[in-house]
Amino acid sequence: MSDKVVTRFAPSPTGYLHIGGARTALFNWLFAKHTGGKMLLRIEDTDRERSTDVATAAILDGLSWLGLGWDGEPVSQFERAQRHREVAEELVRNGKAYRCYATQAELEEMREKARAEGRPPRYDGRWRDRDPSEAPAGVKPAIRIKAPTDGETIVRDRVQGDVKFPNKDLDDFIILRSDGNPTYMHAVVVDDHDMGVTHIIRGDDHLTNAARQTIIYNAMGWDVPVMAHIPLIHGPDGAKLSKRHGALGVEAYRAMGYLPEALRNYLARLGWSHGDDEVMSTAQMIEWFEIEDVNKGAARFDYQKLEALNGFHMRQSDDGELLEQFIATLPYLEQPGAIPREPDAAQRAMLLAALPGLKERAKTLVELADSAQYLFVQRPLSLDEKAAQILDGDARSVIAALLPDFEALGEWSADTTEAVVRAYAEKAGLKLGKVAQPLRAALTGRATSPGVFDVLAVLGREESLGRLRDQST
After folding, report:
1. Which of 140, 243, 363, 434 is catalytic?
2. What residue ranges of the chain are covered by domains with CATH 3.40.50.620?
3. What catalytic reaction does the record list (predicted)?
4. Is the Cβ–Cβ distance between 157 and 227 less than 8 Å?
């Protein structure tokens, strides 16, 4: 086995990249980066009825958006079926596997007998030592591995510790079906060996598979990769994460306005920790990640934590980078509202100027899009319910009284407009809020927005004055 660490992520393309799969990919990626190794990608597309090109594209797209790049070209498991068959035949030649001619009726009879005796259903080994000359004519055999009949198979797991499986429970499982197609159990071993995989990091629902796969490795005389079976993700109620918890594909989190770096940070903390650190940069996660630090127990998915973490990452983001992410996300948002899907240079400049005020209040890019609506709405603005209540007769009079002072301004900025408002409030004997609230409602059509002087600066002189004139009468 080479010294260089090689991990792999091996999704089945029967749907989108779901959040549990994304975390498995992340752990593989972090471990590869941490050790200076590689992460390979294998598409386990042997289930031809359920595997689709659309799902494969969605998985690749989801990984790319999350920033989890892989080394080399993705490998198709289905395209390697001939190699899987060759290894199965080699095992037969070496006396490590055998052809089994048991019929469906016989297998059903074994299952019924086991059920009647209160045992788990197991193949009874009837073709294990029979002479091939006894094979019935016209029956296509399956190939079964010769599993050890006594003792135990031990999976030495970096997360779960040593897990022991009595060999009598593992039976002689099929590695090549009678139609010539390899089983998942067999294909995975051959692929991992041929791809040079040194570390297998995957969900702990594969733990029993690990014991069976170890039998194939041993039969071929191959090194068994280091195993690390990570706990599944549960919903807030402690049950396995499912659709009713909102266990969605990664693309749904993009549409909900989460940043890839925030989702990476959140997923890394699901089942793995580094002291009390909640907020981590990707560089820190790579530096700190050790597979032994993954918990044995299931982690609980918490949308509120994800949202809070996302808000923190947004506030920490460079405005230029956040703008690029926001614009890249616009096509995926269900309701961008008045915001153009492809902002032009002037619109981009306006968004960039508004970002410092917008990102302070938003926890997702969807909330950012919502609070940025005021930049792009057409005059005259339609007012929401609260803004309409604010803009009563007195409020409109305040706006009308302020207009000449605004119109007389030489330089238009947050500072100069603030000075005008403060001077007017003092002269009129009003609290600042009594002037700022009507201005906010008139300028944005809403009762809440970024700081009103920032709004005036971002909208600029002409648009601000136009909106104020609309609401001053």
Report:
1. 243
2. 1-69+231-316, 79-230
3. tRNA(Glu) + L-glutamate + ATP = L-glutamyl-tRNA(Glu) + AMP + diphosphate
4. yes
CB atoms within 10 A of CB 442: 26
Task: Tell which residue, 315, 402, 410, has the closest CA to residue 365.
Answer: 315
**Distance from first CA to last CA of the chain, Å, rounded?**
81
Residue 243 assigned to a binding site: yes
SS3 202: strand
> Is 21:203 a contact under the CB 8 Å cutoff?
no
- H-helix or E-strand spanning residue 192: helix 184-194
- Domain 79-230: CATH class, spelled out: alpha beta
- 25 Cβ contact list (under 8 Å, min separation 6): 9, 11, 17, 39, 63, 66, 68
In the prediction, which pLDDT does 1 show? Answer: 44
Torsion angle (degrees, nearest 10) of CA 29, 31, 33, 38: -70
pLDDT of 119 above 70? yes
Higher pLDDT, 142 or 336: 142
As to burial, measured by CB atoms within 10 angstroms (0-12 exposed, 13-18 middle, 19+ buried), residue 396 is middle
Q: Which residue intervals of the chain bear CATH 1.10.10.350?
A: 385-470
Look up the CATH superfamily of 1-69+231-316: HUPs (3.40.50.620)
Burial string for 134-168 (b: 16+ CB within 10 Å, else e) reads eeeeeeebbbbbbbeeeeebebebbbbeebebeee
> Which positions ≥6 away from 348 have C-beta within 8 Å?
323, 327
pLDDT attached to residue 311 = 97
CATH class of the domain defined by 385-470: mainly alpha
Which residues have C-beta within 8 Å of that of residue 173, sequence separation ≥ 6?
123, 144, 145, 147, 183, 185, 212
**Token pair recorded at residue 191:** 């692929």
What are the tokens at 341? 């899907």
**pLDDT digits 0-9 by tens, 393-415:** 999 999 999 999 999 999 999 99
Is pLDDT of 244 > 70? Answer: no
The beta strand positions in 340-404, using DSSP E, are none
Query: What is the pLDDT at residue 246?
Result: 58
Does residue 305 carry a catalytic annotation?
no
Torsion angles phi and psi, residue 409, rounded to 5: -65, 135
**Cα torsion at 441, 447, 452, 456 (round to 10°)?**
-40
CA distance 368 to 314: 10
Helix then strand then coil, in percent of the chain rounded to 5, is 50, 10, 35
Q: Percentage of the chain surpassing pLDDT 90?
A: 78
